[in-house]
Amino acid sequence: MAPDVVVIGGGPAGAISSALLARAGARVRLLERDFFPRYHIGESISSSCRAIIDLVGAREKIESRGYQVKEGLLLRWGAERDWTINWPDLFGDQVRSWQVDRADFDDVLLKHAADQGVEVVQGAQVRKVLFDGDRAMGVEWTHDGRPRESPADFVVDASGRAGVLSSQHFRDRRPHDVFRNVAIWGYYRGGALLPRTPRGGINVISALNGWYWVIPLSGDVYSVGFVTHQDHFLARRPEFPSQKAMFLTLVAESETVAELVADGRFEGEARVERDFSYSADSFCGPGYFIAGDSACFLDPLLSTGVHLAMYSGMLAAASILSAHAGEVTEREALGFYESHYRNAYGRMFSMVAGFYEQYRGRNSYFWLAQRLARGQYPELMRKRGGDSPVPSDGAFASITSGLTDLDDATRVGGAAPLDAMVLASELVTGKTGNAGKGGRTGKGGSGTGHPDADDATGLYLVTEPRLGIGKAVEPVAPR
Questions:
Q1: Where on the phi/psi map is residue 24: left (φ > 0), alpha (ψ -120 to 50), or beta?
Q2: Nearest alpha carbon to residue 478 among 450, 461, 453
Q3: Which DSSP state fits 166?
Q4: In what order do the strands lie in the sheet with 288-290?
Q5: N or C end: fewer C-beta atoms under 10 angstroms in the chain?
Q6: E-assigned strand segments in 286-353
Q7: 180: helix, strand or coil
Q8: Edge-to-edge strand list for the sheet holding 221-229
Q9: Is residue 431's pLDDT more than 50?
Q10: What is the mean pLDDT of residues 118-129?
Q11: How far apart are CA 355 and CA 170, in angstroms?
Q12: What is the 3-state secondary structure (H, E, C) of 259-294?
């Protein structure tokens, strides 16, 4: 018998998980608080998302929208020369994605979920998840002022920053003090990108007290933003009569950004968002999975938000399908989900932490990327002076595009816990040799904080003949 699943939230994590579940025969009800389309920031999409969109069968719908094609990024960071990360040059012509209008993009994905058989209810306010002991058993919600209950075999909390489970129920979602940042942004009609930027690529430009993004959207629109620590933002805010005035001044203070938008015209108002980075103590438990921004979010420096949302939505769907079918135990499915999702978040956390140490130099970031990729890309190492290898930008590009996470999920033994937070500390402090020895640990010292994480060893994602979790015939030692 197919499982009954309630998904809370219709953003990328909720839309992807629900569509994949429905395509596999599950009965899915998705409860979304808002009415789509609705505005959302996060327009720069990782190339990994294209593969997940393929898996859910929505590629044709996405490509029909005319979004700006994205083939990489260019970073002008610290004292370094410009770094160009060109995905097709590194990985082949099929590795690309889009710069999107998130209101439209999210609406397309939600409608696609409905097309797959998901019962989508917009304007639904979830009050709480119902539990029997430690196990989630359904949700209590209201619609048109009427209280309702929906029993479920599994609940996927993709409620975003609202965090129905992590923030409101368990209250275990904790901010990262080192990333207490604020973003202020707006839109220009007309603009340009830095020379050598890959087609449709994002520009990331560092400054003394933060960094800027410049994102080309369709229709000659450019998304431009500045990210800085909240202390700096709050100290400067009284200087200006409005957010718009502050934003325009910040743009003018960057010679590079001001030049890129010199021929453009600012349109609309400036927007502000605070306190980007946090993570929950655990991402899943009996009968429930916490996906996307509900579980964790990271500073937008490397445009990881939609990747983490879609990736976790895919992992949650695979875990539910295989646990319900008895292909793995629920304990194994929980460990699989926790390990892979936290590893993905940890890798991105480590790279962002490294970038905020602006003056260590690009090879420091590339060495960190090579370690975080666990040696998966030896062919992307280059040689300098004799036989001594130095890191290229291949592992860095693979991690920041989300491709390492997809590769990790499908590898036998790929769920072996990775204490990426310790590697981030090594880069920032310059102290090495501590990986695997620090941080909050669960059973077996895994570093994931989840008691079932070690049960994930030997499990891997499968997509054919249907989505689920495979299990190695022979035991696989953690990598």
A1: alpha
A2: 453
A3: I
A4: 119-122, 27-32, 4-8, 154-157, 288-290, 284-285
A5: N
A6: 288-290, 296-297
A7: coil
A8: 83-86, 72-76, 202-207, 210-217, 221-229, 181-189, 265-274
A9: no
A10: 98
A11: 32
A12: HHCCCCEEEEEEEEEECCCEEECCCEECCEEECHHH
Asked whether the beta carbons of 68 and 200 are under 8 A apart, the reply is yes
Residue 7 has pLDDT above 50, yes or no: yes
Alpha-carbon distance 404 to 112, whole Å?
27
Band of residue 413 on the pLDDT scale cut at 50, 70, 90? low
Helical spans, DSSP H, in 199-278: 230-236, 243-253, 255-260
pLDDT digits (tens, 9 = 90+) for 163-216: 999 999 999 998 876 678 899 999 999 999 999 999 999 999 988 888 999 999
Q: List the helix and strand counts (H, then E) for the chain.
A: 14, 25
CA 57 to chain centroid, in Å, comes to 20
465 secondary structure, DSSP code: S
For residue 280, the Cα-to-chain-centroid distance in whole angstroms is 14
Q: Between the CA atoms of 52, 53, 57 and 58, what dihedral angle is there, to the nearest 10 degrees?
A: 170
Residue with tokens 């390492």: 404
294's tokens: 């509900």
Give residue 277's pLDDT.
82
* Alpha-carbon distance values, 466 to 8, 25, 55, 411, 461 (Å): 24, 11, 10, 17, 10
| Residue 405, helix vs strand vs coil | helix
Give the torsion sign (CA, 55, 40, 186, 64).
positive
All residues at 6 or more sequence positions from 422 whose CB lies less than 8 Å from its CB, including other chains: 434, 435, 436, 437, 438, 439, 447
DSSP letter string over 95-134? --EEE--HHHHHHHHHHHHHHTT-EEEETEEEEEEEEETT
CA dist., res. 300 & res. 202, Å (int): 12
Taking the C-alpha atoms of residue 27 and residue 374, their distance in angstroms, rounded to an integer, is 38
The CA distance from 185 to 212, in Å, is: 9
Amino acid of residue 232: H
DSSP 3-state assignment of 448? coil
Positions of E strands within 381-472: 381-383, 389-391, 459-462, 468-471
Lowest mean pLDDT among 128-132, 380-384, 474-478: 380-384
Encoded tokens for 273: 């968002």
The amino acid occupying position 361 is G
Tell me the whole-structure pTM to 2 decimals.
Answer: 0.87
Query: What single letter denotes the amino acid at residue 318?
Result: A
